[in-house]
Design goal:
Layout: H1 3-17, H2 32-51, H3 58-61, E1 62-69, E2 74-75, H4 77-90, E3 95-104, E4 107-117, E5 131-143, E6 146-154, E7 158-159
Parallel strand pairs: 1-6
Antiparallel strand pairs: 1-2, 3-4, 4-5, 5-6, 5-7
Length: about 160
């Protein structure tokens, strides 16, 4: 299956799971220039916010009406960024790595991993001193150069043996 076909399938699955019909799904349309700029912005989430703790750049990266569509509930930007703070609180040496990215139109999909030592408390994790690893995939929809919507799935952090 081609990368574009795989992305289409993932985006279609997200639209269906979010309750959208084919008639209300967001059409895919963007220039290749915008697509590359969106990929750079997506990388900033991992490099600047997660890895460097530059939380103030969230206003440059996310739209004011940003929504993270969770499995059971949606989160606004403040709630989403509180979760980011929680991960860095739990693992202050957290390093997120972009493994692969696919961009099509207004959508960017990133396969990522994260590693860090659980020396603090956050997001329900108490300090264990163990090295943790997590892997996930995030789909973002962009408008006006900013992230407007997010769908993410990731594994529970696993302690190194």
């Amino acid at each position: 299956m081609s990368r574009a076909a795989a992305l289409f399938f993932v985006m279609l699955s997200c639209a269906v799971s979010a309750g959208a019909s084919a008639d209300t799904a967001t059409p895919i349309a963007a220039s290749s220039e915008n697509t590359e700029a969106n990929k750079l912005t997506a990388r900033r989430v991992f490099l600047e916010i997660f890895n460097q703790g530059k939380y103030d750049v969230a206003g440059e990266i996310y739209g004011p009406d940003f929504v993270n569509h969770g499995l059971t509930t949606d989160a606004n930007l403040a709630q989403d960024q509180a979760a980011v703070h929680g991960w860095r609180d739990a693992a202050p040496d957290l390093v997120m790595t972009v493994i692969n990215e696919i961009a099509e139109g207004d959508f960017v999909t990133v396969l990522w991993s994260g590693t860090g030592t659980n020396t603090g408390s956050g997001n329900g994790y108490s300090a264990t001193g163990k090295r943790m690893t997590v892997r996930g995939i995030t789909i973002w929809r962009f408008a006006g150069g900013k992230i407007q919507e997010e769908w993410s799935e990731f594994s529970a952090p696993v302690a190194a043996k």
